[in-house]
Structures
1.
Amino acid sequence: MTGYEKREGARMSGNSGYRELEHSKPWQYEEGELTVTRSKAWTAPGCHIGCDIKLYTDKDGKLVRVEGDEESPYNHGRLCARCLDIKEVVNSPKRVLHPMIRNREDRGKDKWRQVSWDEALDYTYDNMMEIKEKYGAETFFFTHGTGRDVMQYADRLMYAYGSPNMTGLFSGLSCYVPRIAGMSCTAGSLYIADCSQAWFDRYDNPEYKVPEVMVIWGNNPIVANADGFFGHWVVDLMKRGMKIIVIDPRMTWLAARSELHLRVRPGTDAALALAMINIIVQEDLYDHDFVDRWCYGFDELAERAKDFPVEKVAEICWVPAEKITAAARMIANAKPATLQWGVAIDQTREAMGTGQAVTAIFEITGNIEVPGGLIANTQILDVMGGQWGREFLPEGMDDKRIVGNYQLMKTAMTSCSDDEVIRCLETDQPYKLHGAWLQAHNPLACMSADPKRVLEGMKKLDFIVVVDLFMTPTAMALADVFLPVCTFPERDGLSLICGIQQAGAMNQVCDPGDTKSDMEINLLLGKRFNPECWPWETVQDMFTEVLQDSGYKYDELREVSPVYVPFEYHRHEKGLLRSDGQVGFETPTGRIELWCNIYNMFGLDPLPYFKEPEPGPNSTPEMCEEYPLVLTTGARRWNSFHSEHRQIPRLRAMHPEPVLDIHPDDASKFGVKQGEWVWVENYLGRAKCKVNETFEMPAGIASADHAWWHPEGDPEKLYDVFDLAINNLVPFNPGPSGFGANYKSTLVKVYKVGEDE
Amino acid sequence: MANSEYGLLIDYHWCTGCKSCEMACSVEHDIPIGQFGIRVDQFGPWENAPDDWTYFFMPVPTDQCDLCAERTAKGKKPTCVHHCQAACMEYGKIEDLAKKLTDHPKQVLYAL
Ligand code: SF4
Ligand code: SF4
Ligand code: SF4
């Protein structure tokens, strides 16, 4: 990890402080018979990371191999199995290679008609315009899945069309959005663990400090690779002496190497965090100076935390009191301590209270904006914020956004309450919906709670477009038009990584055939809806405009990619975190608000709070008789990105079927054995998976894989998605703020699948 | 077969079981699904004593490992070593690698 030189950008204009990497070779060069092109891995297929890669092509322009770029300060040459197998994705015989149209009455049937792009786009445009003219643009909504590279273009297409309604059909927007919204309200921006990712020379940077302790809360980062966080940085840091505390019911590889492992009952993280806050306050371990100068509402927080004595919380969370106390002390005494948290925080109805409680631990111990602590995210373009192109949304339209009475969402967000969208689909209130655009989104298999409700609701729509790489259960069930996208080696692109942002050039190296990138599709169509909103001739021109602030043109970026956004520590002391240039944080009081004025204004609890997850052993004990096992879902696997990669043989072979990880004692209680197909069932529905008896799970808590379907199955049975989707067990039911839903905590029973099922 | 002068040193204490080595090897050498040039075995998790767990992974090269002869001839690292996410694999002369075995425990040296 040496040899990275820092040099000021050699570009013509733009903000100073952007940094570019010095490479030993040009962005494209010959190696023997092959051409090597430096690029970034990004959608499609999906990922949240964007590793630096080298794509090798032969003289016919065929992709021969991919390698991690060893000069990358981001992934240091390393790649996970998914990118290593990208050739199999690019060349997959299962890809949809031409646009297709299907009659509305044939939805759910494998009766497609291959068409030209002109015909597909004309047909799409005409149908979308008809709905707009007849019923109003708001009656046509847009969706995208996760993946981070498509969302801003989907948003902009929606604004060009004139609709305010972006949704994920995802109860409580339960992935990162609650944490981002929560941190923005309480601390003015999103904070992330400082793993030296802002520096080219990484762990050796003289300003950087290896954290003494990292708390890994509600995720398994080495597998998950979430949001610009290359999970194996944790391993790099452990090699450099960092200790870890793992808060997770599962015995993960990291947990087995932790100083403390708190096997928390799913959905009770807020109680655990409040108990730690109480200990830190009672034992006077908090950072008085930081709290006095930069925090607001400390006394109120301390008072609230008193309601969470450690003995009581130990019973709630199923974690021994001594471990909770030891963890609180260890965090408070570490200089610095940092937090790598995950989606478990969002996937509870009380996501806002939970996120606020967890971050407060690190705020009152002064770990904000310090090297090796938690640092404010920097960005060229807020890809998740829905702001790009929002000025083109016609006036008054935002009032029609489907957001119900969720005032915080209405004010702080640009998207819908997805739970209100489902209600709207079913009740036609506040108005009847007529069409949808789904991009990189397979809600029947993934993301959506209660997918049968989604299917029934969506069936009523007059016109549905799906933009995707492969045929999916969602497209088979619902699409009237299928627009096929290309993979990342087949397109140019701009990778803007969440977290500490960099801008990276993705370079096309092979022929996309009759498929197009998401960006090109949206540019072609967006132009027709509103040419002012999409003024560019080419996607490359569009990327140059996004890069404006950096001063690089897209072509220049190819040479120097990745460029890093300016970064320094202690920005709150230098007036770099507020838009008015004052010191402090971008909150109403200018301080980190432990008692949050914005929450209070919107009628939400201004302090972190805990409520028992429902259903659960404490909230609905009567249910335990029939459903005695606590179930969590959604653990990440090495071989797939949510519902993707199921049709890629090498990757599928690594984890061929959905699995129920269950303690052997629980398995024998239910009379099921290793490798057997079982139904996992709760009050709402059931899903099939294969038993994996393992001590990874503690007795009493099991874990089921998410986002399963069988691409090899019958298309007209929707690839078995309704047998396999664990979200059959998850209701649409968000928390009081509209954010957060219980994807990760329910009560179930388990029984063998019958012979003919 | 490869000669026996070179080998792989694996600091398996840090091996996370990510299987990038398996996949890198398989795609580089076009190894059929179900066969491996290197395979990662899992041990555990089991609880040796309260709060003391065994849970580790052990990558084992097979007869199909040629130590990436084609790559190493060009001065490149074997693809498993290059892509190992935990950066816990090293390729080199056995006599050099052997000296590192005494640095710390939980390493394994494969002479191939
Ligand atoms: S994390 Fe894996 S899939 Fe994502 S970009 Fe990196 S190597 Fe590719
Ligand atoms: S050295 Fe090459 S052939 Fe041997 S296991 Fe590693 S990748 Fe496979
Ligand atoms: S690539 Fe490295 S960390 Fe991953 S399984 Fe192989 S040896 Fe272990």
2.
Amino acid sequence: MQLIRNGEFVADDFATVGDEDALPDGAVIVSLERWQKERDALTARNTPLGVRLKSGQEPSAIAEDIDKLKVVALEFPVYRNGRAYSYARLLRERHGYKGEIRAVGNVLRDQFHFMVRCGFDALEVADNITPEIWAESVGAFSLSYQPATDGREPVLSLRQRLAARASAREAV
Amino acid sequence: MAQHSRKGAQFQALTANRLADGIVVYLTSDNRWSESLQDADVAEGKEAGEALLARAQPTVDDNIVVEPYLFEIAREDGGIRAASVRETIRQAGPTVRLDLGKQAELPGVHR
Amino acid sequence: MYRYDEFDYQIVNERVAQFRGQVARRLSGELTEDEFKPLRLMNGVYLQLHAYMLRVAIPYGTLSSKQLRMLAHIGRKYDRGYGHFTTRQNLQYNWPALKDMPDLLHDLATVEMHAIQTSGNCIRNVTSDQYAGAAKDEIEDPRIVSEIIRQWSTFHPEFSFLPRKFKIAVSGTPDDRAAIRVHDIGIQIVRDGKGAIGYEIYVGGGLGRTPMIGKKIADFVPKEDLLAYLEAIMRVYNMYGRRDNIYKARIKILVHEIGAEEMKRQVDAEFAEIRKTGALHLPAEEVARIQAYFAPPAYETLPDESTELNKAVLADRDFANWVKSNVAAHKVPGYAIVNISLKPIGGTPGDCSSDQMDAVADIAEKYSFDELRVTHEQNLTLADVRKKDLPAVHAALKAAGLATANINLITDQIACPGLDYCALANARSIPLAQQISERFSDLDRQHDIGELKINTSGCINACGHHHVGHIGILGVDKKGVEYYQVTLGGAADEKTAIGDIVGPAFTEEQIVDAIETIVTTYLSLRQPGERFIDTYRRTGIDPFKESLYATH
Ligand code: HEM
Ligand code: SF4
């Protein structure tokens, strides 16, 4: 596994810990269950915190804690299960979450583009993914028809700007 | 993997589709893939069937064919005949376009 | 019709390049079949019985002559000289090689076509009314909103891995020719009390293993909010649709399990939130831009009556029969809608040779403003033909073997590819349709029987819409032998109904006789003016059961 964060291949500074494991020093990512059970203790540690949501655990479950979290890891149990795309958008657009949203689980190269558009800014990917593959996959489409979370201007508004510029030119 | 053979089938052959063009092929006794069912190696009994399947694996790994499976056949007049309608159609071509598929090239394959 | 601008071209070309890379990685062995399969399925490439199959999208069924010529060319160059028009207004090629697929898609892209989202668990090609723009009682051309939806749904990042495939259909007239109530989302264009245009929304219709009729969850979604509303439905489905069982994954099951009321409540709540952000607000300028592409063609001012037509009807009985069944009323005086049957007696429903495609393209260019439509009943439509040109159009169609006069009659059947092509099939569909067609080939008898739709599917997936055929036939497999189960009373129009199973399945030898028994039973029961479906609705299934099984 490697971590790509904001397009850079970086060392993972968070440890993902199981529900029964002892907490290591430093930044950790825990399950939603552990977070709900040990919220106060975890917050008191004063180290960066992340929560990992399984498919079926909705972002609303952590909506009130969002300021306390540096990472929300959303799980793709299989690439075919696309629930986490909606979860990521809801975290950003509905709950105003600004921290890292990390794609974990079955994260395939042909989906990087979609994930980034939905607000994922970190992805845990297989070891055979190279920076070249990353660049090719994430840049497969230079244009998008619909607005999403990445702020990319959809084709529709590009058209409107083009039309506005054309009519401005005519007016001159 | 698709299940296309009967449990107690006596004779079985092995089929797959060629990766590059999808054409139906059969494993021969010298481990090549032929477009004709008549060239197929025939396995008698369960174990021989499994051995056939195992022999196909290297060509699957080499990306020559995809989706190999065993199916039941009958030996008839020195020839090989698929037992099910499905495999009969697969080895010959659509019954509604006798001018297409293998039946167009290999006379007599349809029924 | 819609034309690509530079942006549309770029997206499609980038897709071709991406798929070219994926095919190359597969052929070189860099990708295993397990890894590649979902990728090819995102682009309409299936592995069928004899070879690969490619499904090409024909957005809302509209084609230019140039596009149809390209489809003909592709049929010759990469396939075996023909294609199959489907119940989702698409075209399928049955024999293309995987290694040729990138070049094929490149050729398609030169005429603004693609295979994007023609399979996979995403929003599929949007279907619509083949009479769009020409229908008399049309509220608005449904292709405008269909194109808007096509763009919004193309590579939608959030909705490319839904629990299951997702199909949307749009109807712009009260008469529903797009079968909107058997789609995941059905959109009916309506006008409110003040004359504003908006959308009535049905959700949760579908066929397959568990056929369901869509439930209405909105009476009027304003135009500018349509995409926000659709995004709300999709999000609810993406989050709550079942993923544990492929047969329970369609939205129809979600709607069925939580109820239409609850579905409506959740969608409304999500819609309210999405609407607040304004991001999906549909600007009037964009609607106008797309609407301009579907502006009415340059109709001439003509008298509604055509003496040429009247004369030809009297002179030529074949022609008269064809006009009677295949020609429909047009909203503009002096014009008519021509339906081209792809159901010749004894032929394969929906199949069309490359030569025939070229012929239709020429006819469309000359007589129907260079444009044609594919229908969900697997026929073609020329939407804007001058009445006085009908004899010439008929003659040209006849020369191409395309003048079969049977639209909406018993030989105008829908049939899926079935066991002759399809790897999922239990039984053959096409030969059955052919035998029925031959049994009822007498045209006078067909007219006597009147409107009757027979739909056949080779397995429970219901690609042949058997649930909504007046007579539906479903192929089942009993120990390696083909059997056929019959349903009665289905309908796909504004009075959509799922057919009732009549009794035990029939063998291949029995099935055509069984259909004949059903037809003669209807003829003996019908009251003046009743179509088969009317009689069935009045009498119910019992008399049919009796005549089918009492004698056996
Ligand atoms: C030959 C390859 C084909 C394959 C493998 C295939 C596969 C399937 C499957 C698996 C379903 C059921 C999906 C579900 O209920 O979740 C389905 C439904 C359907 N297919 Fe096909 N199909 C094929 C060809 C066609 C053709 C040729 C047509 C049109 C003539 C067609 C039109 C449809 C329609 C209308 C449905 C029903 C939609 C619904 O359930 O609401 N398909 N297909
Ligand atoms: S209904 Fe079944 S047999 Fe017919 S095309 Fe669909 S999957 Fe194949």
